[in-house]
Write a structure and sequence with these properties.
By secondary structure, the protein is α+β, with helices and mostly antiparallel strands. The chain has two domains: about 1-45 and about 150-220 and about 315-370, FAD/NAD(P)-binding domain (3-Layer(bba) Sandwich); about 85-145 and about 220-315, D-Amino Acid Oxidase, Chain A, domain 2 (2-Layer Sandwich). The protein has eight helices and 19 strands. The strands form three sheets. Strands 1, 2, 9, 10, 11, 12, 18 and 19 form an eight-stranded mixed beta sheet that branches. Helix 1 (about 15-25) packs parallel to helix 5 (about 150-160), helix 2 packs across helix 5 and helix 2 (about 55-75) packs across helix 8. The protein is globular, with a radius of gyration of 20 Å. One of its GO terms (molecular function) is oxidoreductase activity. Pfam families: DAO. Keywords: Oxidoreductase.
């Protein structure tokens, strides 16, 4: 029977980055069990936004660290990082948002992020392809950007294999049994033993894996929709800056020679299926279409190249989980930001495993037990996922 120091359930962005950081810090016997293939699930179906303009201290810091880690890994491997820096504008649609955004600018600057508030006249000068008369202003960070999910999944998979991590694909975890020291993990590829087990199973597995040990992990899946336009309108420059309309839950970024548009329906409910491929909601797409066409007039009437759905994990407050609810059993979840925060979440979970603490992040924003308490903090800059 194979035995490991750490066995990680889930071979997506969170699980692989956790394995990478553990290996970098000297952990020798690491296994990753993935029921499909590395990066197959939510990871490679995402839009790849990497934003440091979070709505809480934890969100800001995780975005900052992840941006740096993506770039560093590309340099370490000697191949493209998959990250493109274009800058990001987050638009405010109401007086409440404007007031909140001013407070968040101060928070981000305290965390070392170059972030500023801009009024519509300056926004019109900088980004003329957006109709800024629809908004009260926006925050802006120049070194935000995006990654191509397939490239970063390739990179982190290559990195963990290079580091000697044992990656078991098509390996579904069926049961976890506590032992006097460690755990016995039954899978479709055999039975393993491990001193420590990590639940990094994402939107389609985190709750189920926790339940194997009687631990409630409030991670659910919600549908997110993405379309791409194969050609970039002449009004939009190459590598144009990204734009996020928070109140409407849509954003755009460059994509190859065209434009990517992502959107979440505020009325979306948790999806209980085990599927990553979900039906595209064309009715909602058509309902939202007048909004984004009014915001970016040059996109009106553009043909669509691709349309797909992603199954995104979320927590009730949109913040992550980095915790050890049972001795030797760890939970890491992204709160809807697996691509945005994955590298940093893996780094901080490795810190918890090896140092028995998590530094630089507020405890009340990452521990699992917070969900049984009155809600105090939430990530205010997030797509409109369900609240439970």
């Amino acid at each position: 029977m194979a035995s490991f120091d750490v066995l990680i359930v889930g071979g997506g962005n969170l699980g692989l980055w956790t394995a990478y950081h553990l290996a970098k810090r000297g952990t020798r016997r690491i296994a990753v069990c993935e029921r499909y293939w590395a990066g197959f699930g939510a990871t490679t179906r995402s839009a790849g936004i990497v934003r440091q303009q979070g709505g809480s201290e934890t969100a800001v810091k995780l975005g900052k660290w992840s941006r740096e880690l993506y770039r560093q890994l590309g340099q370490e491997l000697g191949i493209g990082s998959g990250f493109t820096e274009v800058g990001y504008y987050v638009a405010a649609s109401s007086e409440e948002e404007r007031a909140a955004f001013h407070d968040l600018v101060e928070l981000r600057q305290r965390c070392g992020i170059a972030n500023e508030w801009l009024d519509p006249p300056e926004l019109k000068r900088r980004v003329p392809f957006v109709d800024w008369d629809r908004f009260l202003g926006a925050t802006y960070t120049p070194d935000d950007g995006f990654v191509y999910p397939a490239i970063v999944a390739r990179n982190i998979t290559h990195a963990v294999l290079k580091a000697g991590v044992s990656l078991f694909e098509e390996c579904e975890v069926q049961a976890i049994e506590p032992l006097s020291s460690g755990y016995r993990v039954q899978t479709t590829r055999g039975t393993f033993e491990a001193e420590r087990v990590v639940d990094a199973a994402g939107p389609r597995g985190a709750r189920r894996i926790g339940a194997m040990l009687g631990i409630e992990v409030p991670v659910s899946a919600a549908r997110h929709q993405i379309v791409t336009f194969p050609e970039r309108p002449a009004a939009m420059p190459a590598n144009f800056p990204m734009v996020f309309v928070l109140s409407q839950g849509y954003y755009l970024r460059p994509d190859e020679q065209g434009v990517l548009l992502g959107m979440s329906n505020p009325e979306e409910q948790a999806d209980p299926t085990e599927r990553f491929l979900l039906e595209f909601d064309w009715a909602y797409f058509e309902r939202l279409k007048p909004e984004w066409e009014a915001t970016i007039p040059s996109l009106a009437g553009q043909p669509i190249g691709r349309a797909w759905t992603g199954s995104i994990d979320y927590t009730p407050d949109h913040l992550p989980i980095i915790d050890e609810p049972r001795f030797g059993f760890y939970v890491v979840a992204a709160g809807g930001h697996g691509m945005m925060w994955g590298p940093a979440l893996g780094m901080k979970l490795a810190e918890l495993i090896l140092d028995e603490r998590v530094t630089e992040l507020p405890d009340e924003e990452i521990r699992l037990s917070r969900f049984s308490e009155p809600r105090r903090v939430r990530d205010a800059i997030a797509l409109p996922f369900p609240t439970r």
